[in-house]
């Protein structure tokens, strides 16, 4: 019964992480260039059970089978599928209609990558993000507004291994390759690739699994209560 409580706890932890991930995707359904975060899980290894109630003297070890204590979250990955393109008509909006990411220089000088091309201009007529980060050009310098701005478009070898730092920015330790012939569309923005219907289905499924685990927890608690109180009276 105690093992049953451990199994339920493990299951609830997995469901909680799934709910957090799904809620995060739903919250960013209207975030420009947002890429959905997905979790992957695996089943824990089987554990062999045994007791020492075998033999004529009820003292020999005997195997009584195996048990799996549920699942565990192994990690997460970024859904790198492209969102739809929305025309805005604004000269400071850009969308990459091909593989690659805009290169952004953060305040500490490090580089980050994003599909969000919702830029603006600073006092030096340079493109910056809405948070004020510099947009890096193909020459490694800040991109200055012009009729045909040239952005540093980075190709990530394994997009699923990027680190999500929030607000649609990603970092990576991989060797970056530059896309020398990107298809950058001015006056457009890439929409989030989150499928609201899929996320709602996942959220409802997670809710049902929460309810099922709560029922199992209640039954296990009642059994444990009877075992403790009834056996104590014998």
From TrEMBL:
BP GO terms, sorted: bacterial-type flagellum-dependent swarming motility
Keyword Zinc: no
Domain Flagellar hook protein FlgE/F/G-like D1: 95-143
Domain (Flagellar basal-body/hook protein C-terminal) ranges: 185-229
GO cellular component, one term: bacterial-type flagellum basal body
UniProt domain Flagellar basal body rod protein N-terminal: residue ranges: 17-35
SUPFAM superfamilies: Flagellar hook protein flgE (SSF117143)
Top-level division of the source organism's lineage: Bacteria
tRNA processing keyword on record: no
Subcellular compartments: Bacterial flagellum basal body
Family indicated by similarity: Belongs to the flagella basal body rod proteins family.
The protein's name: Flagellar basal-body rod protein
Source organism (scientific name): Liquorilactobacillus cacaonum DSM 21116
